[in-house]
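Feature request, filed as a ticket because there's no other form

It would be nice if the structure record came with a short human-readable summary line next to the tokens. Right now we just get the raw output. Example of a typical job, pasted below so the devs can see what we mean:
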Amino acid sequence: MQKKWYRLDTAALIFPAIASRNWSNVFRFSATLRETVDLRTLQQAAEDLRPRFPTFYVTLRKGFFWYYLEEMKPGESCERILRQEYAYPLTFMSRAERKKSCLRIIAWRNRIAVELFHSVTDGSGARIFLCNLVARYLEIRHDLRIPPNGIIRSLADPPQKEETEDSFLKNAAAAGAGRREERSFHLRGRRTPDGFKNLTTGIAETGELLEAAHRFGVSVTVFLAAVMTESLITVQAMNRPFRRRRPVKITVPVNLRRLFPSGTLRNFALALNVGVDPRFGEYTLEELCRSLDHQLKAGATRQNMAGMIAANVIPQKNPVLRVAPVGLKNLVMSLIYRQSGETGGSINISNLGETALPEEMAPHVERLDFIIGPQRSYPNNCSVVSYGGKTCISMIRNIRESDLEQQFFSSLVRLGIRVAVESNR
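Raw output as currently delivered:
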């Protein structure tokens, strides 16, 4: 049987070009169960999902003109992509590993996790895959019948065509938006040895977060971004003289499925940078909430996002770039990314919001976690997901200094939000 291959979607093109030893751009979605995970059952669940979710069981291949994704060998066991946790989250995914699989399925005690190279999907796609994997595991393990809902899909159905499409291509505007932004403040610190990533997770009551956000008249995402902005302003003031200070901006990924009709399971998100310049004066938390809320609402319109999509789609149609070898494309994309890819933001806050699982799964699933790795040029990142009345805020870093986490979680506590903090240290 001939193996099927997929073009990289528009957002995915950049990741192979800029991947390095210090930044392989892998992220994780995990579910903590109320029982110890059985590896044999998990492997069977992974096998059963493969026909329904073929774009996840892929390898990264290098062609003459572009990278592309190729399905794993037909009949090849999923045993090779299944492993027990052996180190810290998001260990380096080498080029050699990506040639064998861009997916890891990891078990540890009562946790099931998937780690994915970002060219495969985004956080929304990973959530659907992980939740379906857990659903199938529970069906086998406990002889359940879990009905489909918005997240859970019927494994009896074939893959839908729209699930594999590049939704960027059909939603681009006629003209592209500009990319230039002033360089923002980036944290610096002493790198941890051997690529170790420090993970600190704050677990808060979702109701308390919502109540605090509503007090300021904003969403939870904007509220967390405002508290993070305030924390970064404080850390910058502690470490830089006034003349060397820069704007503080939060990079907020926007799920484009909420603005455009799309059922894709591949990448379909773009990021907005929202923030303030502390050199202009001091800001209260209320002022930060109001400013960031206005910026995000103004930026996350259908028209503006279509222009941002076009800025990424239009270069692909350039006849010179189309016939250039992949090595030259990598060089060009890497240079562009260095100039504009991360300069406009200080840290990501990627909030997937509430995850609703079928009631048949609720007695078995204790919590969900979403973890994105540090960026190429700045060492901290933050990702958020809510489930079952709890919100898990994961902050990761590849430096020793923990100033930002201390400031951020302490601020939440001062605002009346109870936070239980865990660390892989």
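Something like this underneath would help us a lot:
The first strand starts at residue 5 and ends at 7.
The chain has two domains: 5-158, 178-304+343-423.
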